[in-house]
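Side project, low priority. Logging it here so it doesn't get lost.
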Amino acid sequence: MHRHIDDQLRYDLSAAIDDERVEDVESILEFALWGLLFEDLRLASRALAALAPHDGVWAVRVAAARVVLRSHQGSDLLGVPELAPGAPESHDAVRVESMLVTLSASRFRARPEEIAGLLAELTRLDTEGTLEAPGSPPLLRALLRVQLAIAHLHAGSSAVALAHFAVAARLADSCATLHRSILAKSATVHALRGNLVEARRQLRRFDRVAGEIPPSWARALREEQALAEAMMLVERFDAHDPEMEWPEVEASDDLWPVTALLRARHALLERSPMRALEIVEFAEATHPGWNSLFAQDVVAAMKAHAHLQLSEPDRARQVLTHAPQGPLVVLATAHMHMYVGDAGAARELATAVLDRSTSSLAERAEALLVRIWADAVLGNLPTAREGGIVGRMVVAAGLVRIIAHMPGWLMDQMVDLSERSIRPAFEAAVEKASAALVIAERPQLTPRETIVLKALERHASVSDMAKALSVSPSTVKTQLSAIYRKLGVSSRHHAVPAAYRLGLLERASTSHPA
């Protein structure tokens, strides 16, 4: 039966092309992509092969189709895509599709300058309406939009990626399989940006899409849905079902950096920095050709956070110094500065993230908390307005993860400053995240550090402390540096109040104010 359909399809295509019946050719191509792609890949490859010998517009469209199919299937159906010689590049649809062919190949070759130029040109064409011009079947246009969205995501423009996913979903609404895939990807990117409400809405749309899903695509769609759900779970810092199926970082999916970010963040929240390092290093080794800005941002930031959890700030600094300055790397650098007691530098970086109009909700929320933390260390206490904003982000937006890298004493203050109506829920969120807070629990001071801390409470200067402890001033300074780092402060002025909040000093034993 397949051979009969194959022969008839080739005959119909040849006749339509020979007679220059453009609408018929487009209809047959749409049928090949829509009716066959998700039902019978062998037949889809035959349909594309029937178009391949022809030059001009059809050859370019076949090449473009092969590129997007390779992305969805993990391998090309026909071989390495090449544009036919003499293709009429002046044709709008051909120009767009050939640029997308080049764009896909560029991502594998890791040429960010070429990618930036292509994305800029495609954005201009999109503004002019060329991407929506008639000339290609809606399904092919949807598949190409997905490729464009993924390219923007890898270039660090997640908001632009979402705009292209939205257009792709509209174009693919007649194909249940592709429509669901687009909605799942869109939900994942929304969750990545911290917009969990919209991510949930996209997943509800995913569930409502009618139409039978071929068995060959069922597992892929389950993994895409699971990726979005797991991203939301980690952002909310909720316990996950042990039976939940999480995508693997070695999968050939275009969104592997999101999977690596998800798994590494989950490991860090569980205080397993070595596992986080293994995850991102394995992902890096598995996808050597995907050296995009986004992938580098994810890998470097997660490595840095893992090294900070391992009390290795120098190694974290080394990783961050050699990484592109993406938003995740900038925030990780701010955390690193707070870890080593440079609150001023951390505040400057956090403010830059807040001032950037393209920062996502999750990035802005984390940057705000880092700035509040830095201000507190520098002597500027949090305000009620800041407490209200953070409380709403944690409770209403569900971004519980953002408090997992904050000092416990600071989060206690933020709870006290938050609006009374959300205070119980905010306090419960802080309690839920308490096991993952960087300086969440009582820091583990050595016996000698405990003695020095008590001396810090009683004496006004390092020299007085040195005399009382019968040690040199340099020894006291070394011990104080270690204490400040563990408390998350940068000076003696803030160390004693922090020690009270963490229970390292008993209030009844001294009249020193908190």
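Brief comment: Residues 1-5, 74-86, 437-441, 508-514 have pLDDT under 50 and may be disordered.
Revisit when time allows.
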